[in-house]
Amino acid sequence: MLSPPLSATSVSSELKKRIMAARLTKKMTQAQLAQAINEKPQVIQEYESGKAIPSPAVLSKLSRALGVVLSNKGGKK
User: Fold this and answer.
1) Burial class of residue 57 in the structure, from the number of CB atoms within 10 Å of its CB (0-12 exposed, 13-18 middle, 19+ buried)
2) Is 37 helix (H, G, I), strand (E, B) or coil?
3) How far apart are CA 77 and CA 29, in angstroms?
4) Is it the case that residue 7 has pLDDT exceeding 60?
5) Is 6 contained in some domain?
6) pLDDT tens digits, one per residue of 39-74
7) How much is the average pLDDT of 3-23?
8) Which domain holds residue 36?
9) From CA 74, how far away is CA 29, in angstroms rounded?
10) Which pLDDT value is given to residue 73?
11) What are the residues whose beta carbons fall under 8 Å from the beta carbon of 25, sequence distance 6 or more?
């Protein structure tokens, strides 16, 4: 009974918190952040709730839009 690796099946709680905290610090709504990275608002909601895993390309766009370093590797930079 092997479980799949955590990083492949869910977003780390640290990453979810960092995305939301950075967005709120920038005083952006989910819709505004989505527009800034050319994604749908529902996608941002799914990242922040842990229902979806941002790809490395999306993480890069989020990092640039929010002005923070984001990674899905256990919260490490």
Assistant:
1) exposed
2) coil
3) 24
4) no
5) no
6) 999 999 999 999 998 999 999 999 999 999 988 765
7) 74
8) 11-66
9) 25
10) 66
11) 66
Using N-to-C axis directions, what is the helix angle for 56-66 and 13-25, rounded to 10°? 30
Mention every residue, 6+ apart, whose C-beta is less than 8 A from residue 48: 16, 19, 20, 23, 30
Total domains present in the chain? 1
Characterise 38 by phi-psi region: left (phi > 0), alpha (psi -120 to 50), beta (else): left
**pTM exceeds 0.70:** yes
Q: For the domain that residue 41 is a member of, what is the CATH number?
A: 1.10.260.40
Residues of the chain by 3-state class (helix, strand, coil), percent to 5: 55, 0, 45
Is there a contact between 77 and 69 (Cβ–Cβ < 8 Å)?
Answer: yes
Give domain status of residue 74, yes or no.
no
Structure tokens at 48: 């922040």
Q: Give residue 10's pLDDT band: very low, low, confident or very high (50, 70, 90).
A: low
